[in-house]
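Module 6 notes. Inverse folding takes a fixed backbone as the condition and produces residue identities as the prediction. Think of it as a translation problem where the source language is geometry and the target language is the twenty amino acids. Below is one complete input and output pair. Work through it position by position during the lab.
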């Protein structure tokens, strides 16, 4: 019986993560984030369920995007656990627990290649750059 309750709880958490993802994607779209990618990492780590990677065109644009994600989440009852790098940096992380959002300048994003890093071992092919 406990197993059944546990499975039900996991399903509920997954729905919450998916709802939070929709809120996050809408917030990113509202602020014209570029090249938004969603990576489901539930099978790879326990730190979060979903990672979202997006780019902006300037450090001001990154801050506006990250601020909007945190604001929209808060308006839906989810306070950000933390926002890192929002002081003029080229990479801002918004931690919403079930969803972690990385907003990066394109050069920094290409250097760290988070999409490739988190797709290793997932059974999905690593994402290719548009130029290759």
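Target side of the pair, the amino acids:
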């Amino acid at each position: 019986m406990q197993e059944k309750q546990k499975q039900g709880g996991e399903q509920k958490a997954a729905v919450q993560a998916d709802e939070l993802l929709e809120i996050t994607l809408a917030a990113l779209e509202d602020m014209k984030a570029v090249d938004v990618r969603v990576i489901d990492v539930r099978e790879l780590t326990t730190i979060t369920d979903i990672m979202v990677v997006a780019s902006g065109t300037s450090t001001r644009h990154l801050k506006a995007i990250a601020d909007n994600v945190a604001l929209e989440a808060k308006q839906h009852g989810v306070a950000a656990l933390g926002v890192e790098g929002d002081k003029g940096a080229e990479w801002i992380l918004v931690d919403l627990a079930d969803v972690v959002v990385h907003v990066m300048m394109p050069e920094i994003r290409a250097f760290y290649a988070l999409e490739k890093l988190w797709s290793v071992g997932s059974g999905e092919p690593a994402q290719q750059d548009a130029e290759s």
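Reference fact for the lab report: Residues 1-15, 125-132 have pLDDT under 50 and may be disordered.
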